[in-house]
Design a protein that fits this description.
The complex is a heterodimer of chains A (145) and B (646). Chain A has 145 residues and is mainly α. Chain A has one domain. Helix content of chain A is 79%, strand content 0%. In chain A, helix 1 runs antiparallel to helix 2 and helix 2 packs parallel to helix 4. The two termini of chain A are 34 Å apart. By secondary structure, chain B is mainly α. In chain B, helix 21 runs antiparallel to helix 23. The chains are: A mainly alpha (145), B mainly alpha (646). At the A-B interface, helix 1 of A face helix 1, helix 2, helix 7 and helix 13 of B.
Chain lengths: 145, 646
C-alpha cells in the first residue's frame, strides 16, 4: 500500500470521527447553552472528549501523532473559543449555568491535552514539548552500542 | 421571519459539508493520478471503507426515513423492513467474495463486465444498463425529491424544493466528475457516519419528546385496546387472493406474510445489483467482506433499524398525523442546529447512493454499451471525458424528472429494486450454479423483468398508456413484483438450462468455474451444509415468511403484551439476533465471505490483431438510429390509436 494511501485513510477516519462525534458534541453544547442545561452541555463535552480519544486511538493505530495542521486547527479553535467565552463573561452576557458549562469544557479539554502529552511523551518529555530552540534538554536517546 | 434560524443553520452546516465534499474530491483526484483509476479507484479502496460505504448505500436515507414513516402509519405489520439489515447482507455473503475473485483475475470492475465475460451476452449488459439507469433516475430521483422537500420544510419555506434539489445535484456531479469512484468511496464514509449520527440523534430527540419508551408503549397499547390491534400489530394472514393494490380491497390490510416474504426478495435485489457490486469490485481485498456483511451491515445497521428507527415509528404510532418532516419543522423552531444537522445527515446519505448510481449508470452506458458497439477507437482519456459528460446529463435528467414528473419518478424508483432482484439468478449462475447456461440466464432475466414489470405500478401504467388495461393491480395476491419476476425468472431459467445443456462450450466459463473450484472451495464444511440450508430456510420462513403469523401472537398470549410492546416488534428483535448469527455462520464458518489470501495472476488472453471497426460501427450506429426511429414511430402510432390514458 502506498504511504500516501495510508495517510489518506488515517485522515478519513479522523474526519469520520469528528463528523459523527465532534459535531454532535458541539451541537449538544449549543443546545445546553441555549436551554441553560448543564447536563446537556456536559454531554456535549463528553462527546467532544470521546472524539478526541478516538482520534488519539486512530493515531496510535497508524503510528502517528497529530499533524501540524490538526494541532494548529485545534489550538486556534481552543483559543478562539476561550476568547469568545471571556468576552461574553466580561460583557455580562453569560448565565451562571453557561459559565460553569464553558469552564468545564475548557478545563476538561486542557486536562485531556496534558494527559495526552504525558501518555505520549512522558512527564519530562511533555514539559520539554514547550521548549523552542536550543536551550531545552536533549532527549535524544544515546546510540546503542 | 419564520424559518430564519433554520435557514441560517442549514446554510452554515451545508457550507461545511460542501467544503468537506470538495476537499475529499480533490484528495481523490490527486490520488487518482490521471484518468487511469477514475472508474474504479484502481481497485484499491480499503476494505473498511468499502464495508462502511456498502452499509451506508444499502440503508441510505430512503430506508431510515421510509421505514420509520411506514411503522408510524401501518404499525409493525411490514416486518421484513425491520429485518432489512440481515436481508441486505444475504446477497453480499453469498456473492461478493466469488465475484471479487473473478473480477480480480480477469481485471474487470463492474457487474456488466462480469456478466458479459461469463455469459458472453451483450443483451444482459443492456439489461444491467437499464437497471443502473433505474437506480440513477428513479431511485435517486425519488430520494432527491424527498430530501429536498425536507430541507424546504425545515427552512420554513425560505428555500424552494427545486432550488435545494439543484444545489444538491450540482455538488453531487461536481465531486463525482472530479474524483470518480475514489471520491465516492472516501466521501461515502463521511456520508455514512453522518447518516448514523443523524438517525441516532433524531431517535433520541423523538423518544425524549414522546416521553420515553414507557409512554410510547402505553400509547401503542391504548391503540391496540381501542380495537386497532388487527391492522397495526398482526399480519393479515398468509396470502390474500385479491387483484392487488388499486384493484379491489384487501381483507383488513395488505400486509400478509407472503407480502413480507416477497418484499424481502425485493430488498435482496439491492445487494445483487450493479450499484453495490461496483463498490465491491473497487476494493483491494476480500478482507472486509465477512466483517462488513456480518458486523457492520447485519449487526450494527440491523440493530439501528430494529431499535432506533423502529422506535421513531413506534413514537409516531401514538401521535395522530405524525410525520418526520413535520416533526423536524417544529424542531427547527426551537433547536435549528439539531434540525439542520439531521437533515444534512439524510441529504448526505441520499448523495451517497445517488452519486454511486449515477456513476455506474454513466459508466455502463459509455464503457459497456457505447464504446464496444459504436466507438471502439476511444482512448481511456476520451472514455473518462465522455463518462463525465454522461454523469452531468444523467444528473440533470434526474433532477428534472424528480421535480417535473414525480409520479413517473416514483414508479421508476419503486421498480428499481424488483428489477435488480432479477439479477440474483445470473449472479448465482456466475458464482455458484455452473449449470445455468447463457441462454437460460438471458431468457430467465427477460421473463423475470417482464413478470416484475407487469405486476408493478411502472408496467401497469406503461401498458395503460398503450391502451392495455391489465385485470390486476400492483402486487396481485399481495405478492411483491420482485417475487412474480423471480418466479418467472427461475422457471424459465430451469427449463432453458435443461434444454440447452451440452451445447455450451465457451472456454471462459469453463476457466472461471475451474478457477472457482480450485481456489475457493471451502474446507471442512461439507458436514455443515445441511445445517446451513436448514438454518437459512428456517430463518426466512419464521422471520419474514409465513412464520410471521406466529410472530403476531408469540409474545402476546391472550392479548397481553408480555414484553410491554407489540409481539411483532419483539419477534423482529429476536430474529435480528438470530439473523446476525446466521450471517456469521455463513460468512465465517461456511467460508462464503471470509478472507482468502491468494496471489491471483491476471488472466492473459491469447493475443489478437486489432481490427479497424470504424466502418462496421458506422453502419451499426446508422441501423440503431433507424431502429430507434421506427420504434418511436410505432409507439406514437399505438398510443395515438389505442392509448394515451393516465
Amino acid at each position: 500500500m502506498q504511504p500516501s494511501t495510508v495517510k489518506i485513510e488515517r485522515n478519513l477516519l479522523v474526519f469520520a470521527i469528528w463528523s459523527a462525534l465532534g459535531t454532535i458534541g458541539v451541537l449538544l453544547m449549543i443546545e445546553g447553552f441555549a436551554r441553560d442545561g448543564y447536563a446537556l452541555a456536559l454531554s456535549g463535552t463528553a462527546a467532544i472528549i470521546a472524539a478526541l480519544a478516538a482520534h488519539v486511538i486512530v493515531n496510535a493505530m497508524f503510528g502517528t501523532g497529530f499533524s501540524v495542521g490538526e494541532t494548529a486547527l485545534g489550538l486556534t479553535s481552543f483559543g478562539a473559543l476561550v476568547l469568545v467565552f471571556v468576552l461574553s463573561v466580561l460583557l455580562g452576557d453569560v448565565s451562571r449555568i453557561d459559565f460553569y458549562a464553558g469552564l468545564t469544557l475548557f478545563a476538561v479539554l486542557a486536562a485531556a491535552f496534558v494527559t495526552y502529552l504525558i501518555t505520549r511523551h512522558g512527564l519530562r518529555g511533555a514539559f520539554s514539548r514547550f521548549h523552542v530552540g536550543t536551550h531545552g534538554p536533549d532527549l535524544t536517546p544515546p546510540p546503542e552500542t | 421571519m419564520e424559518g430564519t434560524g433554520g435557514t441560517t443553520w442549514l446554510l452554515l452546516i451545508g457550507a461545511a459539508y460542501i467544503a468537506v465534499a470538495l476537499y475529499w474530491a480533490r484528495t481523490a483526484a490527486a490520488e487518482n493520478q490521471g484518468e487511469a483509476t477514475w472508474f474504479s479507484a484502481g481497485h484499491s479502496l480499503s476494505p473498511w471503507v468499502a464495508a462502511l460505504v456498502l452499509a451506508g448505500i444499502s440503508v441510505s436515507a430512503w430506508f431510515t426515513l421510509g421505514t420509520a414513516q411506514i411503522v408510524a402509519r401501518d404499525g409493525f405489520v411490514y416486518s421484513y423492513l425491520l429485518q432489512s439489515g440481515i436481508l441486505l447482507a444475504v446477497p453480499g455473503t453469498l456473492l461478493f467474495k466469488r465475484a471479487w475473485f473473478i473480477a480480480q483475475r480477469y481485471r474487470v470492475s463492474s457487474q456488466a463486465e462480469l456478466l458479459r465475460l461469463y455469459y458472453g451476452s451483450d443483451a444482459i449488459v443492456l439489461f444491467v444498463a437499464g437497471i443502473a439507469l433505474l437506480f440513477a433516475v428513479g431511485f435517486s430521483g425519488m430520494q432527491l425529491r424527498a430530501v429536498s422537500g425536507l430541507i424546504h420544510d425545515v427552512s420554513g419555506g425560505a428555500v424552494s424544493s427545486p432550488t435545494v434539489g439543484a444545489a444538491l445535484s450540482i455538488l453531487l456531479f461536481g465531486y463525482v466528475v472530479i474524483g470518480g469512484m475514489r471520491a465516492i468511496g472516501y466521501l461515502g464514509v463521511i456520508q455514512t457516519v453522518c447518516l448514523v449520527s443523524a438517525s441516532l440523534l433524531l431517535t433520541a430527540l423523538i423518544v425524549i419528546d414522546a416521553g420515553f419508551i414507557d409512554a410510547i408503549n402505553a400509547r401503542m397499547l391504548a391503540r391496540a385496546d381501542a380495537g386497532e390491534s388487527a391492522h397495526l400489530f398482526e399480519v393479515a394472514g398468509v396470502i390474500q387472493f385479491v387483484s392487488g393494490l388499486g384493484r379491489g380491497s384487501f381483507y383488513g390490510h395488505p400486509a400478509t406474510a407472503v407480502a413480507n416474504l416477497s418484499g424481502a426478495y425485493a430488498l435482496l435485489g439491492l445487494a445483487a445489483g450493479p450499484i453495490v457490486l461496483k463498490v465491491v469490485l473497487s476494493t483491494r481485498s476480500t478482507r472486509g467482506i465477512a466483517a462488513g456483511q456480518t458486523w457492520v451491515l447485519a449487526g450494527f445497521f440491523g440493530l439501528l433499524i430494529v431499535l432506533p428507527i423502529a422506535a421513531i415509528g413506534a413514537a409516531g404510532l401514538g401521535q395522530s398525523g405524525f410525520g418526520v418532516a413535520a416533526w423536524l419543522t417544529n424542531l427547527a423552531a426551537t433547536s435549528p442546529w439539531f434540525a439542520a444537522w439531521i437533515v444534512l445527515g439524510f441529504a448526505a446519505a441520499m448523495q451517497a447512493v445517488a452519486g454511486l448510481s449515477i456513476l455506474v449508470a454513466a459508466e455502463t452506458l459509455v464503457r459497456h454499451v457505447w464504446k464496444p458497439y459504436y466507438a471502439s477507437h476511444l482512448t481511456r482519456t476520451a472514455t473518462v471525458m465522455l463518462t463525465r459528460i454522461a454523469v452531468v446529463i444523467i444528473t440533470i435528467v434526474t433532477v428534472l424528472m424528480a421535480f417535473l414528473a414525480p409520479v413517473t419518478t416514483s414508479a421508476l424508483g419503486a421498480f428499481a429494486l424488483p428489477a435488480s432482484a432479477q439479477l440474483i439468478v445470473p449472479m448465482l449462475g456466475l458464482c455458484w450454479l455452473g449449470w445455468i447456461t447463457p441462454a437460460a440466464a438471458l431468457a430467465g432475466l427477460s421473463f423475470g423483468l417482464f413478470g416484475a414489470l407487469v405486476t408493478d405500478v411502472a408496467g401497469i401504467g406503461l401498458l395503460s398508456w398503450f391502451g392495455l388495461d391489465l385485470p390486476w393491480g400492483r402486487h396481485p395476491w399481495s405478492v411483491n413484483s420482485a417475487a412474480w419476476g423471480l418466479a418467472a425468472n427461475i422457471a424459465v431459467c430451469l427449463l432453458v438450462s435443461a434444454a440447452s445443456r451440452g451445447g455450451d462450450t465457451a472456454p471462459t466459463r469453463t476457466q472461471i468455474q475451474q478457477f472457482l473450484s480450485a481456489s475457493l472451495t471451502p474446507h471442512n464444511t461439507a458436514h455443515l451444509r445441511s445445517y446451513a440450508w436448514t438454518a437459512g430456510l428456517a430463518w426466512m420462513f419464521l422471520a419474514v415468511g409465513p412464520g410471521l403469523i406466529f410472530g403476531s401472537y408469540a409474545f402476546n398470549p391472550e392479548g397481553v403484551w408480555i414484553l410491554g410492546f407489540p409481539s411483532l416488534w419483539g419477534w423482529a428483535m429476536l430474529f435480528w439476533l438470530l439473523g446476525v448469527s446466521l450471517i456469521w455462520f455463513l460468512s465465517y464458518r461456511m467460508q462464503m465471505a471470509s478472507h482468502v489470501a491468494l496471489d491471483i495472476d491476471a488472466f492473459q488472453p491469447a493475443p489478437t490483431l486489432p481490427r479497424d471497426a470504424v466502418a462496421i460501427e458506422t453502419v451499426r450506429l446508422r441501423n440503431t438510429v433507424v431502429a430507434l426511429l421506427i420504434a418511436a414511430g410505432t409507439v406514437t402510432l399505438i398510443v395515438w390509436s389505442f392509448g394515451g390514458g393516465a
